[in-house]
Amino acid sequence: MELTTVSAELDRPGQRRATMREVAALAGVSIKTVSRVVNDEPGVREGVRQRVEDAVERLHYRQHRGASDLRRTGRRTGAIGILVQDIANEFSSALLRALEDEARQLDLTLLAASLDEDPARERALVEEMVARRVDGLVLMPASPRQDYLGQELRAGLPLVFVDRPPRGVEADSVCVDNVAGSRLAVEHLAAKGHRRIAFLGDLDEIHTARERQEGWRTALLAAGLPVDPALSVTGLREARDAEVALTRLLSADAPPTAVLAGRNVLSVGALRAVRRLRAEDPRAALPDVVGFDDFELADLLDPPLTAVHQDVGAMARLATRMLADRMVGDRSPARHVVLQPLLHVRER
Questions:
Q1: Could you tell me which residues are beta bridge partners of residue 82?
Q2: Domains of the chain by range and CATH?
Q3: Measured between alpha carbons, how far is residue 313 from residues 100, 216, 317 in Å?
Q4: pLDDT of 258-297, one tens digit each?
Q5: What is the pTM of this model?
Q6: 10-64: per-residue pLDDT in tens?
Q7: Where are the beta strands (DSSP E) in 157-287?
Q8: Using CA of residue 315, residue 259, residue 208, residue 178, what is the dihedral sign?
Q9: 235: which DSSP letter?
């Protein structure tokens, strides 16, 4: 897969590149005027041009080639839309921040919003972003299919899917191998001697949730372990849901000895159930918990949480480069990148 490299240019070691906005502020002109000067376009008075050139020299401004290409191909607003599931969620917020860092290298501004797993909200927010004439869109879809985007794609809207692949349209995507992530978790638990491994999952209609459950199932079969439907609980949205579900599983006649929590908030709920069990009966056998999605402070928990780690930085870099390719006119076939997760093993 060919990707156009989009990276920061540093003028001096240890110093970030000055932006066009800073040049405009120093010269007392608009960003558009700075753009005309650095691209050697006509229509700028000589005195104004000299002020801009002086500001460029004083700030050691170096034009980013990618940004220049975007301007020459008709970039209209300098903004891209980012639609994720929940900005408050650690995974979504980390991805959003990584995308912001990448976009800043192209002097692009982000317009971000949460979808809350609501297809109607997704369509409304996409329509709003398009109405604002964003120069591109990064989407973590909530809808089962995105056929409604066909007209926008045909009209040339640069679009990249993250975390979840497109359905019903052909567009670039960057995802993680969720099946492989669950397999890593189950293999780790099986190697520790666990034979009854539960799974706590999100809504069945969510693509990533289905893949993580499938990874749990196939890893159990590969290890020669029984797949007990009673140990798979899905449709869990909040930490409290996972806490209640695991509490119920642990009170059964044949409780699980380990659990894979299919999302970071579900890991929190599972750990709360374990903590409560330990407080109620210090001699009780506590299940091992492995989470899908690493999160801050996971290593400081007691016991520390072993977690499947997704490289949000790599996801953001690839998504931004793909979007930049499309924004400068790339019309090659859609590219689909699947990143491999890692298992961060943490023990007492």
A1: 112, 138
A2: 20-61 (1.10.260.40), 79-170+312-340 (3.40.50.2300), 178-309 (3.40.50.2300)
A3: 11, 26, 6
A4: 999 999 999 999 999 998 988 888 887 889 999 998 777 6
A5: 0.75
A6: 333 334 557 788 888 999 998 888 888 887 788 889 999 999 999 988 887 866 5
A7: 159-162, 172-176, 197-200, 232-233, 258-261
A8: positive
A9: -
